[in-house]
């Protein structure tokens, strides 16, 4: 019996080993495609949670405080207002629109030089260019937007607090999102008490805006991520491959491959795809592998790629002991995105 040939539009991510130069990383520091047109007007505040409208109004004022200030000041401010901090920090659960608001800041602020990236993209840039070269690259920038601010190890704490401190001292304004208030970053993940001075110094640069609410991805959707039978999985992937390029990988093999690709390169790993296929999904037993998968799903979700999968439902891949640990919020964010992506 002759094997059926795979559609020409089907690829395997495990065969890809993308490279990313410092110049490529800098060029990528713009909002994800789904937020290209994000504005404050298009942010739909949930009336049941007044903090959403409150944060939106405060951020409009933050952006309307004036064009980048002349040398010696952060930005214009109205007379009689108390001194304003150079950064805003959006703290809230997943799915309340923090990234939409962050992208709205990026688009609305009248700035000559501005950058938008995930926390991991900035730390990867330091790794690629070196600390001092990264400082020089961003020196004089008007705005740095940092999405999903996460401190998972002491090294990242030191690097980011030093970098932001130097940039704020030169007049750069900051906007960041996270699921954790800045004073609590690192708690439950490493010995945060050893880094309190650095964490508090960073927090002092931000005005924290709490945004309450429910995950908008689940407002009209309940249940698990969709897990397909083999025939349905193959039919869906063939359809995606006929119209573009889809990936098809064993879940276990892809997770192992992610260990050999720096997370900053995950965006290139999925370059040109129209869908992701994962066969025989299983539950994680290794936390490092689980966290790499979270970073991968962040990039998949940013690219708005649908996921098709077989095996264990993707919202069940993180066991209870992981969900009860210090990375709980990361895993819950990933589950939210996985459910939405399998329904896309």
From TrEMBL:
<dbReference type="InterPro" id="IPR005654">
    <property type="entry name" value="ATPase_AFG1-like"/>
</dbReference>
<protein>
    <submittedName>
        <fullName>Cell division protein ZapE</fullName>
    </submittedName>
</protein>
<dbReference type="GO" id="GO:0051301">
    <property type="term" value="P:cell division"/>
</dbReference>
<keyword id="KW-0547">Nucleotide-binding</keyword>
<dbReference type="InterPro" id="IPR027417">
    <property type="entry name" value="P-loop_NTPase"/>
</dbReference>
<keyword id="KW-0132">Cell division</keyword>
<keyword id="KW-0131">Cell cycle</keyword>
<dbReference type="Pfam" id="PF03969">
    <property type="entry name" value="AFG1_ATPase"/>
</dbReference>
<keyword id="KW-0067">ATP-binding</keyword>
């Amino acid at each position: 019996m002759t094997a059926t040939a795979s559609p020409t539009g089907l690829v395997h991510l495990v065969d890809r080993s993308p490279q990313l130069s410092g110049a490529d990383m800098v060029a990528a520091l713009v909002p994800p495609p789904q937020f290209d047109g994000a504005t404050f007007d298009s942010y739909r505040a949930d009336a049941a949670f007044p903090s959403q409208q409150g944060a939106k109004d405060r951020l409009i004022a933050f952006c309307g405080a004036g064009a980048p200030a002349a040398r010696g000041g952060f930005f214009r401010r109205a007379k009689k207002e108390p001194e304003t901090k150079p950064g805003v920090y959006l703290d809230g659960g997943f799915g309340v629109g923090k990234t939409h608001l962050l992208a709205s800041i990026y688009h609305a602020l009248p700035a000559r030089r501005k950058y938008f990236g995930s926390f991991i993209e900035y730390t990867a840039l330091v790794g690629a260019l070196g600390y001092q070269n990264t400082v020089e690259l961003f020196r004089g920038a008007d705005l740095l937007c940092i999405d999903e601010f996460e401190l998972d190890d002491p090294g990242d704490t030191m690097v980011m607090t030093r970098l932001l401190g130097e940039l704020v001292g030169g007049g750069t304004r900051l906007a960041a999102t996270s699921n954790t208030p800045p004073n609590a970053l690192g708690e439950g993940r490493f010995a945060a008490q050893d880094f309190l001075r650095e964490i508090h110094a960073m927090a002092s640069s931000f005005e924290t805006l709490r945004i309450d609410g429910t995950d908008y991805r689940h407002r009209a959707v309940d249940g698990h991520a969709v897990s397909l039978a083999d025939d349905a999985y193959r039919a869906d992937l063939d359809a995606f491959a006929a119209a573009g390029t889809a990936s098809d990988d064993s879940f276990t093999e892809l997770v192992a491959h992610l260990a050999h690709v720096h997370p900053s390169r995950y965006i290139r790993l999925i370059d040109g795809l129209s869908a992701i296929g994962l066969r025989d999904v299983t539950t994680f037993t290794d936390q490092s592998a689980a966290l790499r998968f979270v970073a991968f799903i962040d990039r998949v979700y940013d690219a708005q790629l649908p996921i098709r999968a077989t095996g264990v439902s993707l919202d069940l891949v993180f066991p209870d002991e992981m969900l009860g640990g210090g990375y709980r919020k990361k895993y819950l964010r990933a589950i939210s995105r996985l459910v939405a992506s399998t329904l896309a």
